[in-house]
Design a protein that fits this description.
It is built from three helices and seven strands; from the N terminus they run ββββαβββαα. With 134 residues, the chain is α+β, with helices and mostly antiparallel strands. It has a single domain, classed as Nucleoside Triphosphate Pyrophosphohydrolase (Alpha-Beta Complex), CATH 3.90.79. β1 and β2 form a beta hairpin. It is globular. The N and C termini lie far apart (39 Å).
Length: 134
């Protein structure tokens, strides 16, 4: 496939009021979205998703179920496909460096109201469907 390949994830945790998802604010684009980024040479989509989330948030995660992918044209007009996974936090704490300047753990309904892109809301809608039964 030509174009830009990217991957990311939706970190999920159990909060006091139910599940919460992590979204990040990127000052470069002034948007609220999920942590994601371009795949490096030789890297799988799964490895890319885990690396990007770790780099952007400081969280070490484990892959959960795959969520819907998104596709759109990037800022240079190239076709871009982003694969997403539900992620469980294994270790680490929120550490924001270059790409994100703010991160919030929110209930899915709150996150949906803050996300910049409709395509991210479509990914978010499938997060609760991917939660294991308790």
């Amino acid at each position: 496939m030509s174009g830009v390949r990217a991957a990311g994830g939706v970190p999920v945790r159990q909060g006091d009021r139910g599940i919460e998802v992590l979204i990040v604010h990127r000052p470069r684009y002034d948007d609220w979205t999920f942590p994601k980024g371009k795949r490096e040479p030789g890297e799988t989509d799964e490895e890319c998703a885990l690396r990007e989330v770790r780099e952007e948030t400081g969280l070490v995660c484990a892959l959960g179920s795959e969520l819907p992918s998104t596709s759109y044209s990037d800022g240079l007009g190239r076709a871009k496909v982003v694969r997403y996974w539900r992620l469980e936090v294994v270790s680490g704490g929120l550490v924001l460096e270059d790409e994100a300047d703010e991160a919030r753990w929110l209930a899915p309904a709150e996150a949906a109201g803050l996300l910049t892109y409709e395509r991210d809301r479509a990914v978010l809608a499938k997060v609760s469907d991917s939660m294991p039964d308790t």
